[in-house]
């Protein structure tokens, strides 16, 4: 049975959530940028056979309203922490995909005693060196962006929105709408220092063919996180949990959870 709720005891940034299943410890799932809890629900339903699963629409996505201010991922992590406090959740397993993974790292660093384990699927948050042509192009685009914005401010023109964004803006940037300032604030955040301090068991589940968050990010996190395990799924893209692949992801996650100490073993027939 799914329990759908809007808001918690906290007055700021109400959350739309869905709770599936029962059993301890609770599992919280955070979706990626531009998505909602619905994209994670098929995977969550597999876990709900064994435990209570909390699906959350992050503020500004799905049915959760946008924050009043332009948040960074620290503030998103703080909001999830308050959700756990409001619902008296402790010893949680926390799963984050992409943008949700960056928030999960922030939360695991900030409140390690809240977590039993951390699962990151194709997570953002680590900068990796780019080959020369890509690095040069990025620098040129950064300069061009600033130049266009300067012209617009000084002359009242529309070069940035009318010329630069349609040609060079990323897909996420073009579709961000009222969330654009939050995207700009969070997209280049680097959580390397926080990841290095995380001591809880970590599963890094990565797609071998992901072009948005390439395997090099997962490998870097694996080196930084002293208690981590990296599993690479060959041929999968940025969303390895969609359709029939949800069973493959659930298999690896349940294997990982079953390896943790003081864990009630579950049959892996996801």
Quick rundown:
The protein is an alpha/beta fold and 270 residues long. It has helices at residues 37-47, 73-86, 99-110, 132-155, 159-168, 171-175, 180-186, 192-197, 215-224, 245-258; strands at residues 2-6, 16-20, 27-30, 53-57, 92-97, 115-121, 202-207, 228-233. It is globular.
Give the tags:
10 helices; Rossmann fold; 8-stranded mixed beta sheet; 8 strands
The largest β sheet comes out as:
8 strands, mixed
Low-pLDDT windows of residues: none
> Which CATH class of the largest domain?
Alpha Beta
**What is the approximate shape?**
globular
CATH superfamily of the largest domain, please?
Alpha/Beta hydrolase fold, catalytic domain
**Beta strands, count:** 8
Average pLDDT value?
87
Element order, helices and strands?
EEEHEHEHEHHHHHEHEH
> What share of residues are in beta strands?
15-25%
**How many structural domains in the coordinates?**
2
The rounded distance between the terminal residues' Cα atoms is 18 Å
What would you say the CATH architecture of the largest domain is? 3-Layer(aba) Sandwich
Summing up helix and strand content along with how strands pair, one would put the structural category as alpha/beta
What is the strand arrangement across the widest sheet?
A: 1-2-4-3-5-6-7-8
Number of helices: 10
Radius of gyration: 19 Å
Please give a structural write-up:
The structure is a single chain. By secondary structure, the protein is of the alpha/beta class. Helices cover 42% and strands 16% of the residues. It contains ten helices and eight strands. The protein has helices at 37-47, 73-86, 99-110, 132-155, 159-168, 171-175, 180-186, 192-197, 215-224, 245-258; strands at residues 2-6, 16-20, 27-30, 53-57, 92-97, 115-121, 202-207, 228-233. It is globular. The chain starts with a strand and ends in a 12-residue tail after the last helix.
